[in-house]
Amino acid sequence: MVIVPARDEGPRIAAVVRGVVAVLPGVEVVVIENGSSDDTAERAREAGATVLHSQVGYARALRVGFAHAHASGAPWVVTVDGDGQHPPEALASLLLGLDDADLVVGSRFLQGAGYPVPARRRLAIGALSAWASLFGGQALTDVTSGLRAMRPGVVADFASAYPTDVADGNVLVRALRAGWRVREVPVAMRPRLGGSSQHQSPRKSALFALRMAQLCVREGLSHPGRAPRLPSDQAPVGRG
User: Fold this and answer.
1) How large is the C-alpha radius of gyration of the chain?
2) Fold for domain 2-222?
3) How do the pLDDT tens digits run along the chain, 240 residues long?
4) Can you say whether the dihedral through the CA atoms of 168, 172, 175, 181 is positive or negative?
5) DSSP string spanning 119-157?
6) What CA–CA distance (Å, rounded) separates 145 from 176?
7) H or E segment to which residue 207 belongs
8) Judging by beta carbons within 10 Å of its beta carbon (0-12, 13-18, 19+), is residue 117 exposed, middle or buried?
9) Is there a contact between 148 and 106 (Cβ–Cβ < 8 Å)?
10) How many other C-beta atoms are found inside a 10 Å radius of the C-beta of residue 202?
11) Domain chopping of the chain, boundaries
């Protein structure tokens, strides 16, 4: 199952849905519309997606998506942003990564993959990644990437308890402290296909970074012990 949180992505969402289906025929694409003022839901439905709704917010949208995936018994879940930055052809490498990991993150900063990220944003992501790495106990390079694949055990954890405000590096810290196996794979991401991001506002970006840093600390201190997880879903993940 592919989960796509989307707010005011009407001009882009159909291309995202169709791109996913082109590389993963038969997969259920679930678009979680969260407070759009445009035709995001209609465009997604016309493109063949299942459309669910949530309260405003990226984390709240993901929470609804994980609950739906868990209830549906999905054998794996991939989260994809609705702005067109995540190339559909990268989904195969994320799913392959699940053969020896529980949570796989697509990173812009491994092997120099992808479009050039502005220096100020790259610096901020690097600082947050270092902070999350410290409290998660494992090196991470791209903690704000929304391109992630996960096994059912992780989905079940997220469905039962998931943040409602910020869901980036803090979620990776939570997964690591819970003992899930987390790895990153390089992904050559693209610029947005139009529209605007919350990170284009320096003030909002700064507030987001401060909040995420605080939550990484909270997750790290809330789960001081870390033991390897032995999930029951160890079989190779199907790509069909």
Assistant:
1) 17
2) Spore Coat Polysaccharide Biosynthesis Protein SpsA; Chain A (3.90.550)
3) 999 999 999 999 999 999 999 999 999 999 999 999 999 999 999 999 999 999 999 999 999 999 999 999 999 999 999 999 999 999 999 999 999 999 999 999 987 655 667 777 788 888 889 999 999 999 999 999 999 999 999 999 999 989 988 889 999 999 999 999 999 999 998 886 665 555 556 677 778 788 888 888 888 888 665 545 555 455 556 655
4) positive
5) HHHHHHHHHHHHHHHHHHTS--S-TT---EEE-HHHHHH
6) 16
7) helix 202-222
8) middle
9) yes
10) 9
11) 2-222
Residue 233: per-residue pLDDT? 56
Tokens of 164: 């409602």
Amino acid at 184: E
45: number of Cβ within 10 Å: 17
- Cβ-based burial of 148 (10 A; exposed 0-12, middle 13-18, buried ≥19): buried
Q: Are 151 and 70 in contact (CB under 8 A)?
A: no
Token digits of residue 89: 């052809």
Total Cβ atoms within 10 A of residue 199: 15
Task: Please check whether residue 144 is in contact with residue 169, taking contact to mean a CB–CB distance below 8 angstroms.
Answer: yes
- DSSP conformational letter for 185: E
